[in-house]
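The methods section describes the discrete structure representation at length, but only in general terms. What matters is that the chain and its backbone geometry are given together, residue for residue. Nothing conveys this as quickly as seeing an actual entry. For illustration, here is how one protein appears when written out as sequence plus structure tokens:
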Amino acid sequence: MVYKRHKKPVSKHTGRPCKLDTLNHEQIRKLACKGWTDEEMADFFEISIDSWYYWKSTRPDFFNSLKDWKDQYDERIQISLAESALGYQHREDKVFVHQGQTIVVPTIKHYPPNPTSMIFWLKNRQPEQWRDVHKVEHTGKDGGPIETASKPRFVDLSDFTDAELAVIASAGLKLNVKSKEEEDGQEG
């Protein structure tokens, strides 16, 4: 006798519930806005980084929220970098004790422009103008190739033996053999 299996209605949500739904999203927002990385947040919530990345790839609402929160932190960094590059000032109270009395003096603290911040900003915002390595291309006349000219070099072979000259000739070197008298005759 063959028994037929009864098909149970398949639930839309099989398996254990997603841990993402149990996390405090306000806490995730605060950590992302403070510049925490995905790895740091996954570790904080005791979740594997693979699960974190899976949620980002399958849950667009989670991915977009996380991206927006991280962008807020990036904007703060950008403003701080610009302030550092340009220099800035802020109010500061100096506290002094004079003859046993506390005196609070409001002051303005000035921070001069930071050249390192300027360089960093310019290299990233205008890389063609501010990169460290400049591409220089050399060309010849009218943009053509560079022409090179070489003078033939004459070597005095008068001290070589016939056997040595034969070895040189067998190597494929072109020998223009002139006698010393011929050379002297050309100079004068």
Summary: The chain has a mean pLDDT of 81.
